[in-house]
Design goal:
Blueprint: H1 13-69, H2 109-137, H3 149-171, H4 175-187, H5 189-192, H6 196-212, H7 216-236, H8 241-254, H9 260-280, H10 285-299, H11 303-312, H12 321-334, H13 340-352, H14 356-367, H15 374-388
Helix pairs in contact: 1-2, 3-4, 3-6, 4-6, 6-7, 6-8, 7-8, 8-9, 9-10, 10-12, 12-13, 13-14, 13-15, 14-15
Biased composition (Polar residues): 88-97
Protein name: Regulator of microtubule dynamics protein 3
Coiled coil: 23-50
């Protein structure tokens, strides 16, 4: 324009702000992507180490089993030319007293032992090559064709039994134990991902981590991961009460931060799977406790939630406080003193139904039980509030 012209900005101020906001958004996404790539890289490295270790252990075990199965038959050496230690390599001929090779084409015991040892080495080399080819052909099927499947199955079952026993013990422990239990199952997922008893315990461990974590994003990640594990498991083991139970619980955990319609939809799924679990395992007090909680929550839906249900669903869920009470009493019938939270719920049900004396009785019974879980600790606070009223 000329030396005396006043320069004008290429972008207006609002356009500059918008551009800065977009750049900031892009930078945040790039940082998050870099973090995810780094986590993926670490996971792949860890997985590769596990696979290499398992393949190496399997190859060593296969060679040991092969050597035990192919024990060479040792022959006693004899100086007699008529001894049975002579190994025939021809169909006819006469025996000679020479130490080397006979005139008729026979080989003496001395030459035979060297030949046998060489043959055994070649046989072992062939077995090793066959094993390597088997591993290359299918990395997930590490059992050689001539391996006895019963031996492998028994070893896997023994290891799985010990693992499940340890996982149950850690699940019943404190916060640190449950974190260790989750990591233990996660480390063994590659070996036992196809086992029903392993999968529902892994899902249960996801629930434990959901309870132990305060961050909303991490909680959702744990719940979603456990739910995805059981979605696949239920396609194969629809008759597993434990799979239905923990799938229902995880559905509720996933929907905790969702909108009202999604929470209500999750409630339908929860009820469906708890009913299936009860049909498969009718003597489990935990299932009736979960159903009682569902009934109590449905009976106390707020005005907005009820309007949403009526608008979105043709058949809204229905349950009363009396329904909830019957389920909680069923828990006490199957396992007296099952949980502190369960007895607090019974007291709340009687309070809502106007039976003050029964409510006080169950408040006293609830006070007798220790608080073993986070839910029990929250129930203790409710108990104190009820006593103040």
């Amino acid at each position: 324009a000329g030396d005396g012209a006043v320069p004008t900005p290429l972008l207006r101020q609002d356009e500059q702000l918008e551009l800065l906001e977009r750049l900031d958004f892009v930078l945040k996404n790039v940082m998050e992507l870099r973090k995810e790539v780094e986590e993926l890289r670490n996971s792949l490295q860890h997985l590769a180490v596990e696979i290499v270790g398992e393949v190496r252990n399997h190859l060593e075990e296969t060679q040991r089993v092969t050597r035990r199965r192919k024990i060479p038959f040792f022959r006693d050496r004899s100086d007699s030319t008529g001894s049975s230690s002579i190994y025939f390599t021809a169909s006819s001929g006469n025996i000679n007293t020479d130490d080397g090779e006979s005139e008729g084409g026979y080989t003496t015991a001395n030459a035979e032992s060297d030949y046998d040892r060489e043959s055994e080495r070649e046989s072992e080399d062939e077995v090793s090559c066959d094993t390597v080819r088997t591993v290359r052909r299918d990395s997930l099927d590490l059992v050689p064709e001539d391996e006895n499947p019963l031996v492998v199955d028994s070893l896997l079952e023994e290891g799985l039994g010990q693992l499940l026993e340890q996982a149950d013990r850690l699940h019943s422990g404190d916060e640190q134990d449950r974190r260790e239990g989750f990591q233990l199952l996660l480390n063994n997922k590659l070996a036992y991902a196809g086992q029903r008893e392993f999968l529902w315990r892994l899902a249960r461990a996801h629930c434990d981590m959901w309870e132990l974590t305060e961050d909303a994003d991490e909680r959702r990640s744990y719940a979603t991961g456990g739910k995805e594990e059981l979605e696949l498991a239920l396609q194969k083991w629809d008759q597993s009460a434990e799979c239905h139970q923990w799938f229902a619980i995880l559905c509720g955990q996933v929907s905790e931060q969702e909108s009202i319609p999604k929470r209500i939809q999750a409630g339908y799924v929860f009820k469906e799977h708890i009913d299936k679990a009860i049909a498969l395992k009718p003597q489990d007090p935990q299932l009736y406790y979960l159903l009682g909680r569902w009934c109590y929550q449905v009976a106390h839906l707020g005005w907005l939630e009820k309007r949403t249900v009526s608008a979105l669903f043709e058949a809204p869920p229905t349950a009363t406080v009396q329904d909830a009470l019957q389920n909680f009493l069923r828990v006490e019938e199957l396992s007296p003193g099952f949980s502190k939270a369960g007895r607090v719920y019974i007291a709340k049900c009687y309070r809502d139904l106007g039976n003050a004396s029964a409510a006080v009785l169950w408040m006293d019974l609830a006070s007798e039980l220790p608080g073993n879980t986070k839910e029990d600790a929250e129930s203790e606070k409710e108990l104190q509030e009820m006593r103040s009223v």
